[in-house]
Design a protein that fits this description.
By secondary structure, the protein is α+β, with helices and mostly antiparallel strands. The chain has a domain of 44 residues: Herpes Virus-1 (2-Layer Sandwich), CATH 3.30.40.10. Helix content is 19%, strand content 9%. It is built from one helix and two strands; from the N terminus they run E-E-H. It is elongated. It is found in: Nucleus. Belongs to the ING family. Keywords: Chromatin regulator, Metal-binding, Nucleus, Zinc, Zinc-finger. This is PHD-type domain-containing protein.
Length: 69
Amino acid sequence: MTSDLDIDPNEPTYCKCHQVSYGEMIACDNEDCAIEWFHYSCVGLVGPPKGKWYCEDCQALMNKKNKKK
């Protein structure tokens, strides 16, 4: 029996939760981000941020690089 809730196993997953695309999503502004797209709810957003937005992993990498300088 097929239902509307069946998920295509070939559909790509996103975010740190490894789920399919749904609802509002945001892209990390780091072009080399390993994950790239995140669900608002998973990263604590309720609306679009002003300016650039970086995920926790990319923020940590940038902070680490800046400390080495």
